[in-house]
Structure formats: structure tokens, C-alpha cells
Amino acid sequence: MTAKKVIITIAVIIVAGFLIFGYVWYFVPFSDSGVKAGILNNVKHKGIIFKTYEGELIQSGFGQGMQGLQSNEFQFSIDDKGLAIKLMGMSGQNVKLHYKEYYGRLPWRGYSKFVVDSIVSADPVIPDQSNEIPPLVTQ
Fold first, then answer.
1. Does residue 18 surpass a pLDDT of 90?
2. Is the pLDDT higher at 33 or at 125?
3. So what's the pLDDT on residue 75?
4. Which pLDDT value is given to residue 114?
5. CB 94 within 8 Å of CB 122
6. Rounded to an integer, what distance in angstroms lies between the CA atom of residue 110 and that of residue 104?
7. 3-class secondary structure, 98
8. DSSP for 42-98?
9. Any idea which UniProt keywords this protein has (predicted)?
10. Residue 125: its pLDDT value, please?
11. DSSP secondary structure string, 18-55?
């Protein structure tokens, strides 16, 4: 083999290695099945070049070394527009969301490595009328 063929072979192997690494890093889920439960805080459509749906789930619980109850925020992205619109209407509800976790983020997939793909369950909304402001009645 000539030196030129060896250099070309090594370059092809290096480029193929980077392509495989990039594919695994951005497109193969690190965790392909996870569920988080909590109160859905908000879902919004944001971005400058790539508009994506982003959401926040408030999880409460006891933390290690902490006294009392603490809350944690789970920030996630949503790929499916229909699912995002459905979640927008469920703000404030207790929900369980199924998600996938990726090693890296892509701008068109969202701001988070966690991508929600379905709703596992949601508690029905029971209206609490004790906190409602009565309508203004003019006479």
C-alpha cells in the first residue's frame, strides 16, 4: 500500500467514526422510556429560528439533606404539535408524561434533552368554586 492510500483509509475511518458518534449522540435515545409525574406548570411555543414547544412539570417530594417538602421542575420539549396543544389545555392538572432522553439537543427538536411523546394519565379537573371571583353585576 502506498502512503496516499493509508492516509485516505485513515481519513475515511475517522469521518465514519464522527458520523456514527453524531448519529448516536443526537438521534438514539439514551433512555427510551421514562415517566414523570407532577403538576403541569406551563407549555409554550417559543424560539427565534426554530419554533418549538417547551413545557415545565412541577414535581414535589422530599429531597436528600433537605428538611420538608421541596419542588423540582422538569423541563421538557414536545415534538408533536397536537400533543403540545392538548397539554396547553391541561395546565395546572396532575399529569404523568412519557418521555425519551437523548444525549444531545437539536435546535429543531427543542431546548431540552427530554422529549415528551405521550400522556400516560391525567387527573380530571374538579373545579374549586371557593376561590372564584364572582362576576361583576352592574345595576
1. yes
2. 33
3. 92
4. 93
5. yes
6. 11
7. strand
8. EEEEE-SSS-EEEEEEEEEEE-TT--SEEEEEEEEEE--HHHHHHHHTTTTSEEEEE
9. Membrane, Transmembrane, Transmembrane helix
10. 64
11. HHHHHHHHHHSEEEEEEEEEEEEEEEEEE-SSS-EEEE
Helices and strands (H and E) in the chain: how many: 2, 5
The more confidently predicted of residues 69 and 24 is 24
- Residue pair 121/95 in contact (Cβ under 8 Å)? The answer is yes
Please, what is the average pLDDT of the chain?
Answer: 83
52 - beta bridge partners? 46
Beta bridge mates, 24 = none
Closest CA to 39 of 129, 130, 125: 125
The per-residue b/e assignment along 68-81, b for 16 or more CB within 10 angstroms, e otherwise, is eeeeeebebbbeee
H or E element: which one contains 115?
strand 114-122
Residue 53 sits at φ, ψ, to 5 deg, of -95, 125
Averaged pLDDT for residues 74-102: 91
- Cα(39)–Cα(119) distance, integer angstroms: 13
Q: 71 by DSSP, 3-state: which?
A: strand
| Cβ within 8 Å of residue 34, ≥6 positions away | 98, 99, 100, 101
Place of cell 361583576: 136
What single-letter amino acid sits at 86?
K
